[in-house]
Amino acid sequence: MRRYETIFIIRPDVGEPQIKDIIKRFEGIATSASGEIIETEEWGFRELAYHIKGERRGYYVRLDYASDAATMNEIERNLKLQDTVLRYLSVLIDVEADVAKAREEIDARKRRIAEARAAAEARMAAAAAQRAEAAAAASQAESAAAAPEEEIPDAPDEITEPEGGRE
How far apart are CA 143 and CA 137, in angstroms? Predict the structure, then answer.
């Protein structure tokens, strides 16, 4: 089996339930002829580079699947007939696809992304804690500077000369 990737753009005025139905329909076409879905990514609403059929935005979907060429042609034929699809593009990723290996690679990539996000969040939290600590120390120093100083007892009014007097 070959591994394909098909990206298509759905009109933005289509409702959420219809978008899910369209995606399920094309996943069904991919799996109907002994194909396998590797991954389905919904990229969501994005601005288009230029107007397509009068639309400025579109809902992007990426299907990653393994099937034969006839199945890919059937998916493209249905995408062409679908009025709610603005544009589509299918690309051959691999001539001999190993579905299990592809899924492992995708899972490993998702784990790396999750770990990187968690590490970034931890760094941001540590930086925020450090800034809060510095701000607290600065406010504490500021309050200490603003506090009235301890009074030094006044010197006696009369200054006495040392014993023995002046010469």
Answer: 10
Distance of alpha carbon 111 from alpha carbon 143, whole angstroms: 47
Q: Could you tell me if 61 and 87 lie in one domain?
A: yes
pLDDT, one tens digit per residue, over 85-105 is 999 999 999 888 777 787 788
Name the strand (E) or helix (H) holding 16.
helix 16-32
- pLDDT at residue 1 is higher than 90: no
The stretch 55-65 carries a mean pLDDT of: 94
Which alpha helices (DSSP H) does 97-160 contain, by range? 99-146
- 93, 110: one domain: no
Strands (E) located in the chain: 2-10, 36-52, 55-67, 85-94
For residue 73, the domain's CATH number is 3.30.70.60
**By the 8 A CB rule, do 22 and 55 touch?**
no
At position 33, the amino acid (one-letter code) is A
